[in-house]
Structure formats: structure tokens, C-alpha cells
Amino acid sequence: MGGHGRYLLLLLFITALIKFSDSLPYDVHWLGGPTTIERDVPTPNKQTVDIYCYRGTSKNLFAIWQTVKFNIKIKNNEFSQYIGESPADVYKEFSEDSYGWSSVVNPFQKKPQKSVSINLFTPTCMAINTRERHTIELQVLRVDLWRIMLMAAGLVLIFSSRALCGNPVFFYLCGIFVGVFASFMVLVYYISKLLPRCVGVLMIFFSSDYQEASAAVIIASLVAKYFPQSLINRICGYWRRKFPPKQKLLTSEEYYEQGARETKMALENLRKYCSSPDCAQWKIMLKLNDSKRFASFVEGNSHLSDDEVLDYEAYAFSLERSRKPTPMANSTRNMEISDDDDDDTDYDDD
Description:
The protein has helices at residues 2-22, 87-96, 145-159, 161-165, 168-179, 185-205, 211-226, 229-242, 252-275, 281-287, 291-299, 306-323, 327-349, and strands spanning 26-31, 35-39, 49-54, 67-74, 79-84, 115-118, 124-130, 134-141. By secondary structure, the protein is α+β, with helices and mostly antiparallel strands.
């Protein structure tokens, strides 16, 4: 009898629990992704409240720029809105609203919004009270461009804070902004020094609901910005001493090409300078033996005359010829070797 009694009590408890769950005064709709729910005009016989809940997501780097919103599509603003962390909290707020089904506007009631941004990582529930046809939409933006722009702007402010602090225009603008609320110049000075960095930090921090990742970005950017330059130079110097770069030597062709390229560039720069107003052309022409040649060079002609080109080619040809061994020397050497061989042969015959 004792065992049957326990089973009977358990059965009664389960039955009561089921009846209690069925008798809840609200219906919960759990939304896990992008969802759209259309609602017609509520009937007077409806006794339950529709509550829409977002479950939340786990914290990961892929959600750093993600945004989740509750959007309400309705023709007018004649609706009341209730938001909480659980269905029970939402229903409690709904039941305590004395103007829930009244057309009288409560001046102390929070103004409803047709688009509500919710926390990405915590459950959020919402219910509305209206007599109009409406649509509930859960909007999930995987990559919110506004959050990306906000983080990028914060990084720019952090890395350009030193330049902004030294800008007199920015200093006076900060003075005007802070001077409205304070009359201490010391406070103006320090705020103008810290304002760009603080604003950048706040922009990065609020650019994502993943606050741990935003804090990591802030710490990394501050360390990269204010890391001692002397220590960086020491590390780079040690790395160069430990792993020196390999020096690449030029080949003969590369040496010739580089010389020709640099010579051509230098001549073009010289020609541009001689054609510019900064050059005293008449004074230079008075000092030259051949002023016509200088004018021809400025006009774009070659800086070498035909005779100089021929002399250079003859010199280059003679230099190249002197490096090659002459056939006469080789034949003479062969002749000397042959004579020695003949002498040796005669000696052997003797």
C-alpha cells in the first residue's frame, strides 16, 4: 500500500503541474533566429497574453559585431510595450499597468518603441498590448556595419590622440565644450588631453555586445599605441643582429641597367631645374663656353655631341679588345713550345 500511495501522489503532482502550466495567463513564443509573426486584431474572448522571448546566444568572436532587434510593424503608435528578462517579469509589468487596455495616455508611462535593440547574450522577453493588427519581427544582423564603423572610429581616435592633443583648434573646441559646464582651466587642459582617448575607448567598448572582446581590442590598441619606442628599437636591433639580412650583390647587367636608369633620371631632373624659374639661366650661359649646347640640352636634345659619342665608342671598343688575348701571342707561344719539342727530339736522337 505504501508503494501504491507514493505512485498515486506522484501522479497527482504531475497532473496538477500540467494543469498549472496549461492555466498560465500568458503564451510564450521562444525565438532563436530571424522570425516574423503576424497577429490579427485580438478578440475580446482572448484571456492570455502573447510574450515573445529571445533565448540569447553564447559569447564568441563571430558575434562581436552582431545586433539583435525586436521590430514592431503597426500602422500607428497606439500600443503599450513591456520588456523584461523572463516571461514572468513581462507579465508582472503587464498586469501592473493600469492603462493596459485603456485609450487614455499615461504621461508617466515609458514611450513605446517600434524598434528595440536587445542584449545579445541574455534572454529578453517582450509583450505588446494593442487593438490593431501588427507584426512582430526578430531581426538578427550577423555583421552590423554601424558597429564596425564605431570600432574603427574609436581606433582612429586612440592612435591619433597625440596629434589631436597638440592641435590648437581641438584644444579650444574642448575648452568651449567643457567651459560651459566648468570654469577651471586646469580641468579644460586635462580633459582636452584625455578626451580623444576616452571617447575612442567608449566607442570601441559599445561597438559590440561581446564586451570581453571589445575590452581585449581596447587593451591591445592601448598597448600598441603607448608601447615604449626605445624598447621596440632594442628588440628590432637585437633581431637584426641575431638574423642579419642577406645582402644581394648586383650582376653586371643589373649594374649597367641601374646606372643607365639613374643617369637618365638625373638628366631629366637637371633639365627640369634648368627650365624652371628658380634657375638663373642667363648667368649660367655666361659662364659656359658653348651656350648653344646648353640651350639645346634644355630643349630636350642629348647632352653629348656626336664626336663625344664616337670617342666613347672607340674607347669602349679598344678597352674590350685589350681584354681579349691576341691570336699572334698564342701562335708565338705555340711556336716556342714546338721549338723546345724539336730540341728535345734531337737530343734524344743523339
